[in-house]
Amino acid sequence: MDDAVVARFAEIVGESELLTGGRISEDYARDESLTCEPRKPAVVAKPATAAEVSALLTTAAGHGVPVTARGSGSGLSGAARPREDGLLISFERMNAVLEVDAVNQVAVVQPGATLAELEQKTAAAGLAYTVYPGELSASVGGTVGTNAGGMRAVKYGVTRNNVLGLEAVLPTGEVIRTGGKTSKVSTGYDLTQLIIGSEGTLALVTEVIVKLYPRPAHSATLLAPFPDLDNVMAAVPRIISSGVAPDILEYIDNLTMAAISHNEKLELGVSDEVRDATQAYLVVGLENRDRDRLDGDMLRTAEVMSELGASDVYVLDGGGARKLIEAREKAFWAAKAAGADDVIDVVVPRSEMPGFLARARELATAAEGGVVGCGHAGDGNVHLAIFCKDAAKRHKLLHDIFAAGIAAGGAISGEHGIGQAKKDHFAALEDPAKLALLRRVKQAFDPRNILNPGVLFD
Amino acid sequence: MDDAVVARFAEIVGESELLTGGRISEDYARDESLTCEPRKPAVVAKPATAAEVSALLTTAAGHGVPVTARGSGSGLSGAARPREDGLLISFERMNAVLEVDAVNQVAVVQPGATLAELEQKTAAAGLAYTVYPGELSASVGGTVGTNAGGMRAVKYGVTRNNVLGLEAVLPTGEVIRTGGKTSKVSTGYDLTQLIIGSEGTLALVTEVIVKLYPRPAHSATLLAPFPDLDNVMAAVPRIISSGVAPDILEYIDNLTMAAISHNEKLELGVSDEVRDATQAYLVVGLENRDRDRLDGDMLRTAEVMSELGASDVYVLDGGGARKLIEAREKAFWAAKAAGADDVIDVVVPRSEMPGFLARARELATAAEGGVVGCGHAGDGNVHLAIFCKDAAKRHKLLHDIFAAGIAAGGAISGEHGIGQAKKDHFAALEDPAKLALLRRVKQAFDPRNILNPGVLFD
């Protein structure tokens, strides 16, 4: 990169907030994707304002410098992995929860704020931001970029259902505001929704208005072992249609449960005998502002699960429940520690989960590999750890599993995104007419192709 | 229009399904906008399949024929008002509810199906499609085009929160599918969300996958007269934060209540004395699968309203509640019958409603006109009937009211859309950088500008 360009970047954010060469740590070279090799950028800039972001983009556009945005780097698809010749904009200094507005039940947040920070600030107001991916160190900006989901999506929806407005900087340097503190608007194309999930390729988000919910006073967690995975899947629509509105509805297969139990030293009180006869577990979270109503919902849910073949239903106490949920959140780390070669999150209609899982297992066996997993059963979002050392075989296995998901009416990813890790599969499997349209939309935002080139598509 | 082009359209849909000249009835010349003059199209085509829609668009694009889509024509902004030189595609024959899928809790619907039809089919399965604008004769395709909202949006969200996937025909003739029977997906830009609310300017929707909810067994409606509008507005966030999750939360000002009561012969049991001391009413709908829980929520809601200054709280019986809700739905017709010159639906953060309403009244008085209204109080979505005969004064009044809404952090329209009726105001008040971006997005979809030219912007 030209020295004059670097000097201009330094002028914009200040010398101390611009990193080059040896001052760039390994952290900036990667996110948590298991398959994207780390790659350091030429420059890291840490802006403090939207105006600085705008000046950075204008300069980058003028010199054809590729730009990657980075929140906490906890993404799983390589969307925050920078280009060697590029500028990495780290939002670590734009990390404030600017406002928690109890009357309108919204918070105004900078992109670098973590979910943990937002959780703390909203809890103090008796409110909650309900998007709850496994990683509370994730930045709000990152969750917008990837349209993050997580366990509570079954009740509250994913990021796109919970973001009401944005401030964003276009690659042309213009700063726009979309949406606002309102839950509806009908004035032209919804730019908020278009930017959410665009993985840093359309605009850089500098402020996010999120929707908050009242925080229910009481919650409970039920754990039910099932001898058969199909029964787990059959229980899911029954629980949903019962109207108890669970905020967590997760399945965990026996191998994953063994791994997370071991790693996190979980004591769930499940006897060896039951455990050995269990193919998968269902974890159901319930919440209510009223203790009696919660008890009624627990009873009803336990009845449904027993009717549908659960060998038992355990009511976890607060501490046990928290530990189990935290362990489930760490399933990715457990898979990584166990030597998983990749982690994917295909989404299918929930009726298709048993068939899809069976097909994925068959494909893995045929490829001399294995899949184990857990997932957001209420959403049909299956998180699979892929074990298959041979790179070429693994590529074909992934292709076939993604194709099976699409054939079942689903998509390659429910919440992790495409990033760099899955773009080859996306290019191979997505409708060419849609791909061409996505490229034209990209062009409408970013005519010089400076924002995250090589993410989503080449 | 060239005879050869008309002949080609006839070949595509069949002679009997193509109308020209005197065979085109007045209905096809308009929607329910109060300010857009009727205008008959050159041709009306009634396709039966997406393939026919595709062939119509390919032909239209080849000959530069402007195309307008029409569902039931119940829109309020002129988005379905055709061009004199254009083709109107009426979806009246593509009107089937193709599937109600109870396991995945979705329905697959053709765009010409009415909400009434969808209501009937989903009710039979114990489910509900919860988007509930005033007009049940509205087509599903029309509600997608305008991102329709309605009373139940306070609990269930608007159209964009309840549509999971689309089949759509691009102006280039390509038929694409977006989303699916899943509640989440993270694979590139969300085309479903981009097409929703685009008022027929980006693509023509030929199939819609909507989200369904369990239908609660019990419901109740409370009516509370308040001596002061500000107290109504103060009660709204309190009811929402109480956690009772009302599915209806409407305010109706005294003049509107008088008009709809008179038109619909409502007997609400409110004494003359109370009525004369009332500035506005709050209508709260509650629902639950459990009768006891519903009773508890009613009590809680009544307490909150009494504490906040309601002169009384009436529990309406089933018949009375239905009549009131139906009457409220017909507020537009009451306004029209009363000689309203326009009807608008500015949305503001709900905390800003009192200030915005006061400002709108001041502006109307200064313009020697008047505003009366009702609205979705939980959403900050204010429906105002505008009385101001002088066209120039009215134009300025609307401009000033829209500007006041935007200044309060809101938008010109919460659910009616921009269409043709408000595009001048949209052009004058929207950020030019955003308008330019919307035009580039339009260009990405519709390079020949054949879909609804003159809607949203010129």
From TrEMBL, chains A, B:
Residues 36-215 form the FAD-binding PCMH-type domain. Coiled coil: none annotated. Keywords: FAD, Flavoprotein, Oxidoreductase. InterPro entries: FAD-bd_oxidored_4_C, FAD-bd_PCMH, FAD-bd_PCMH-like_sf, FAD-bd_PCMH_sub2, FAD-linked_Oxase-like_C, FAD-linked_OxidoTrans_Type4, Oxid_FAD_bind_N, Vanillyl_alc_oxidase_C-sub2. Pfam families: FAD-oxidase_C, FAD_binding_4. The keyword Oxidoreductase applies. It comes from the Bacteria. Its cofactor is FAD. This is FAD-binding oxidoreductase.
